[in-house]
Amino acid sequence: MKKLSRRSFSTIATKGILGTTLLGNMPLANAFSIEQKNKKLGVALVGLGSYSTYQLAPSLLETEYCYLAGIVTGTKDKEALWQEKYNIPKKNVYNYDNFDTILNNEDIDVVYVVLPNSMHADFCIRAAKAGKHVICEKPMAVSVEECDDIINACKENNVKLSVGYRMQSDLYTHEVKKYVKEKTFGDVLFVSSDAGYISKGNPDQWRLDKSLSGGGALMNMGVYAIQTSIYGTGQNPISVSAQEFSTRPEYFKDTDETITAQFKFDNGAVAHMMTSHNANGNRLKCHCSKGWFELDPAHSYGPISGRTSNGNTLEFPFKKQQALQMDDFSKHILLGTKNVAPGEMGKRDMIIVEAIYKSIYEGGKEQLLSLGDIGIVY
Length: 378
Ligand code: NAD
Hints:
The protein is of the alpha/beta class and about 375 residues long. It has helices spanning about 5-20, 30-35, 50-60, 75-85, 120-130, 145-155, 170-180, 210-215, 215-235, 320-335, 345-360, and strands at about 1-5, 20-25, 25, 40-45, 65-70, 95, 110-115, 135, 160-165, 190-200, 240-245, 260-265, 270-275, 280-290, 290-295, 305-310, 315, 365-370. The chain folds into two domains: about 5-160, NAD(P)-binding Rossmann-like Domain (Rossmann fold, 3-Layer(aba) Sandwich), CATH 3.40.50.720; about 165-320 and about 345-370, Dihydrodipicolinate Reductase, domain 2 (2-Layer Sandwich). The longest helix has 19 residues, at about 345-360. Nicotinamide-adenine-dinucleotide (NAD) binds near residues 47, 49, 114, 115 and 220. This is Glucose-fructose oxidoreductase.
């Protein structure tokens, strides 16, 4: 497949939408759909740490609608290694200082920010200003205010924005959403979800440094449990109460270790989530009026596994979630399909994260959430 430069795509797309120009005897709207099938969007990864190295770059070898076109790294040694491994030309290699000149690079359509959480907003906004579509890793930022800044920058610069919520593209998630929507097991009454792991590594890692992470388990793994609580009920919560537990304060000096939270939903459903950097958890279970369904594991890279109360096992062919996710976003850009993880979803989750921290600060007091105007229910 050939790559598609943003300028040529925009020209084709604009003319296609207007539908007035003809290519030979063919209306341009048709010419556009034929043209785009042969193109791939160029993605530049910003931050070549473990997620980019072991998940995103290999996944970009499997994507149908995008490919790894460029890199942005602060580590000089990585440049040649990545260039050779992924056949990246020198002109598509950037560092954090010259990153803004990516504006002039037609090979790059999408910038994917894979840096520590407190750096997301800065690089997403710079990418938007450079006219590039943006994928921002989870958690979207370290505050609701920063989420707004990213969303506004993308709107102002007329570029698309997505959050790296790979689960939104996973077939098991789609199946769960179908059960919820179609009430296959009746009404969902109670959802339980866990997302955590035992952190034993370097105590100086950025995930344990609040200035870089914005918070601990809740920021890192908790957003998965928030997501499953929401798509497990098919609604945004109307309130949350939360508790924090600390057993290794000498290691978790700066960030939360274990958090539990309870959500209420408008239809009377309830959810309980647990997130931890000191306990393993990787599960979603939905208890319904006529049975149950569960994913376990639910949040890892896959294969995911699921079961239902009528004895069925969920089985879908394995495909890298990250490849599905980046293809979904590329199709959104190229074909106008649904953005399955828009910026507003990342902002909604950050509103919930902030409410959880506030509840803990206020001794577990219930926090009312008004997420109606967010317009996102997944
Ligand atoms: P990592 O520590 O492996 O990589 C971080 C990268 O940022 C490195 O290349 C590092 O050199 C660079 N960096 C730049 N400035 C830095 C600084 N001041 N301190 C530390 N590193 C700095 O982290 P990661 O696991 O690749 O995570 C990166 C982002 O991806 C995070 O936002 C994380 O939440 C997200 N992530 C998402 C998933 C997922 O499943 N969606 C999985 C893992 C990580």
